[in-house]
């Protein structure tokens, strides 16, 4: 398996190599198009000045003069009419003269060897220690023809400053490479921690402690990953609690049904007792049916396969019918009901919204004290319909307010008979499917206000 660290090193080396190759190529183009020509011209100017001076002096002083010129950092080769070669200064590594150079003696031509030399790779031609990599000019002393070939000595062209620059570049390249390796390590280490953390989560081990203290994107990723692991742990615990609660919710009515069914087998039961027992069985059956429907509805909403069948209907009329249907529960707890419903038509799924109001009103009744009060309002704000259901019951603790929308969550698990923890999860899903907004405001001991905002009919 190719690790990210190895890939980073390989990519770094490839980038460095590609950069060097491109740089050499570009420098070669600059050298061929500009520097080579300029160098040839500068050496030609020097050569013409040297021959102009040497032609004014006696032949016996020529050797002394050329010796003094090479001390200025030049390599010089003199060829006479007999093709005899005299070398001044450091000798060339390659001393073979071509025909063009030999033909220069006694002619009026100029040899542009530096400009035309192409024996090596591009810019390396500049440093070729070859006699053909020179500038040549003819001259004449005491009626004798000569040709002089001259160029700057490579050894003298590399001064201490050049060595310092080359050393600086090499040291910089090494430091950059080492720094990139260390950077790669620094980047890969937190990723390895995250990899190990994902393996733990895959094994359903959510107890993760990422020791990644960074202020960059990796630090943010680690922070959000840690939060995700905590939420997964909480959700896992909620699911386990939910299974226990649902098992209890199913087990309790089933035991009641079984128990009263056995009691009904007793022939000594009076007619009044028999009706009472059948009523309890019917009530428990309805309870099971309601719980099953909630589970199926939430499952469908979660799978996103429940079709939304929108139609235009009267929202205020729907609320009135629901309030009338809940009248017996309100009367049973002697709860005062106040409502103000503005006539509003809405384009939505009538059946799903009925589930929303039914769950919210049932919660308001369940968590209201006897002889309490519930206020229901329905109004229009611009293009939005606002439905508010407010109770003055026990309220919701502040630390639980953000979580009551979560499925399977119960504020007080000991009061399991008052619900399965699915009602607000179902409401949240349905409102979300209608692109609406659900806002829950509550204060412990003073009641809860639930507000649903939906788009009105266009």
Describe this structure as you would to a colleague.
This protein has 458 residues and is an alpha+beta fold. It is 53% helix and 17% strand. A hairpin with a 4-residue loop joins strand 1 and strand 2. Helix 1 (4-54) runs antiparallel to helix 6 and helix 11 packs antiparallel against helix 12.
Quick synopsis:
The chain is an alpha+beta fold and 458 residues long. It is built from twelve helices and twelve strands.
Query: What's the story with the biggest beta sheet?
Result: 5 strands, antiparallel
Order of strands, widest sheet: 2-1-5-4-3
Evaluate the radius of gyration: 48 Å
H/E series, N to C?
HHEEHEHEEHHHHEHHEEHEEHEE
Number of E-state strands: 12
Mean pLDDT: 83
Number of contiguous helices: 12
> Uncertain runs with pLDDT below 50, 5 residues or more?
413-417
Terminal CA distance: 58 Å
As a percent range, the share of helical residues equals 40-55%
Ordered list of secondary-structure elements with their pairings:
Layout: H1 4-54, H2 62-70, E1 74-80, E2 85-88, H3 99-102, E3 111-112, H4 113-116, E4 135-141, E5 144-152, H5 154-157, H6 160-202, H7 217-264, H8 271-303, E6 310-314, H9 315-325, H10 327-332, E7 336-341, E8 345-349, H11 350-366, E9 373-381, E10 384-391, H12 423-433, E11 437-443, E12 447-455
Parallel strand pairs: 7-9
Antiparallel strand pairs: 1-2, 1-5, 3-4, 4-5, 6-8, 9-10, 10-12, 11-12
Helix pairs in contact: 1-6, 6-7, 7-8, 8-12, 9-11, 11-12
């Amino acid at each position: 398996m190719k690790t990210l660290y190895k890939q980073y090193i390989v990519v770094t080396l490839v980038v460095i190599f590609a950069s060097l190759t491109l740089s050499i190529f570009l420098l070669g183009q600059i050298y061929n198009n500009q520097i080579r020509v300029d160098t040839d011209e500068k050496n030609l100017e020097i050569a013409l000045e040297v021959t102009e001076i040497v032609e004014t002096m006696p032949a016996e002083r020529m050797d002394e003069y050329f010796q003094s010129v090479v001390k200025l950092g030049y390599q010089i080769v003199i060829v006479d009419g007999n093709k005899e070669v005299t070398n001044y200064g450091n000798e060339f590594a390659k001393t073979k003269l071509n025909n063009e150079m030999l033909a220069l003696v006694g002619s009026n031509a100029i040899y542009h060897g530096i400009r035309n030399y192409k024996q090596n790779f591009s810019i390396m031609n500049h440093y070729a220690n070859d006699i053909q990599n020179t500038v040549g000019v003819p001259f004449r002393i005491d009626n004798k023809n000569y040709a002089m070939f001259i160029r700057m000595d490579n050894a003298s062209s590399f001064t201490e400053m050049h060595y310092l620059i080359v050393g600086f570049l090499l040291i910089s390249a090494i430091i950059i490479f080492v720094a990139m390796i260390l950077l790669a390590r620094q980047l890969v280490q937190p990723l390895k921690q995250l990899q190990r953390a994902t393996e733990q989560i895959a094994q359903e081990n959510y107890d993760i402690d990422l020791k990644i203290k960074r202020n960059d994107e990796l630090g943010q990723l680690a922070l959000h990953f840690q939060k995700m692991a905590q939420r997964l742990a909480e959700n896992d615990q909620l699911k386990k609690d939910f299974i226990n609660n649902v098992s209890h919710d199913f087990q309790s009515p089933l035991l009641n049904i079984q128990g009263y069914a056995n009691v009904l087998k007793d022939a000594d039961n009076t007619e009044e007792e028999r009706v009472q027992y059948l009523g309890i069985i019917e009530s428990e059956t309805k309870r099971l049916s309601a719980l099953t429907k909630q589970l199926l509805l939430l499952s469908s909403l979660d799978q996103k396969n429940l079709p939304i069948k929108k139609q235009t209907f009267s929202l205020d009329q729907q609320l009135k019918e629901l309030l009338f249907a809940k009248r017996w529960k309100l009367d049973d707890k002697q709860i005062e009901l106040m409502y103000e419903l503005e006539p509003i038509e809405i384009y939505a799924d009538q059946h799903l919204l009925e589930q929303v109001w039914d769950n919210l009103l049932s919660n308001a009744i369940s968590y209201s004290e006897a002889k309490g009060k519930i206020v229901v309002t329905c109004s229009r704000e611009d293009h939005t319909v606002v439905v508010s259901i407010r109770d003055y019951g026990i309220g919701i603790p502040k630390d639980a307010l953000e979580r009551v929308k979560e499925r399977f969550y119960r504020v007080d698990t000991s009061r399991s008979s008052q619900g399965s923890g699915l009602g607000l999860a179902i409401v949240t899903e349905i409102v979300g499917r209608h692109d609406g907004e659900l806002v829950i405001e509550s204060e412990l001991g003073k009641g809860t206000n639930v507000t649903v905002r939906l788009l009105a009919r266009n």
